[in-house]
C-alpha cells in the first residue's frame, strides 16, 4: 500500500488497473500523444528562435549605447559595429586590448 498526494491510501490493484489501461489502449491513443508532443515541440522551436533573436538584438543595442556613451572606453559607435577606428576618414584596425 502507498499513499497518494492527497494522503489517501491506494493499494496495488489501483496501480495495476492504471497500467493495464495504458497497455490496452488502442494504437490511435499512442499516435495522438506522440503527434501532440511533436506538434508542441514544433510550435516551441520558432518561439524560442524569436526569443533568442530579440535577446541578441537587445544585447547588440545595449553594447552600442554603452560604447556611444563612453562606458566601454570607446567613443565611436562605428568602432563597435565594424571593429575599426577611423583615421582621417579611413578605417584602420583597432589595437588589441591589454
SS strand fraction? 5-15%
The structural class is alpha+beta
Q: For the largest beta sheet, what order do the strands appear in spatially?
A: 1-2
Radius of gyration: 30 Å
> Could you spell the SSE succession in H and E letters?
EEHHHEE
Can you characterise this structure?
With 98 residues, the protein is α+β, with helices and mostly antiparallel strands. The protein has one domain (2-93). It is built from three helices and four strands; from the N terminus they run E-E-H-H-H-E-E. Strands 1-2 form a two-stranded antiparallel sheet. Strands 3-4 form a two-stranded antiparallel sheet. A hairpin with a 5-residue loop joins strand 1 (2-3) and strand 2. It is elongated, with a radius of gyration of 30 Å.
List the helices and strands and how they pair.
Elements: E1 2-3, E2 9-10, H1 12-24, H2 27-68, H3 77-82, E3 84-87, E4 90-93
Antiparallel strand pairs: 1-2, 3-4
Concise account of the structure shown:
This protein starts with a strand and ends in a 5-residue tail after the last strand. With 98 residues, the protein is of the alpha+beta class.
Q: Which keywords apply here?
A:
98 residues; alpha+beta; two-stranded antiparallel ribbon; 3 helices; 62% helix
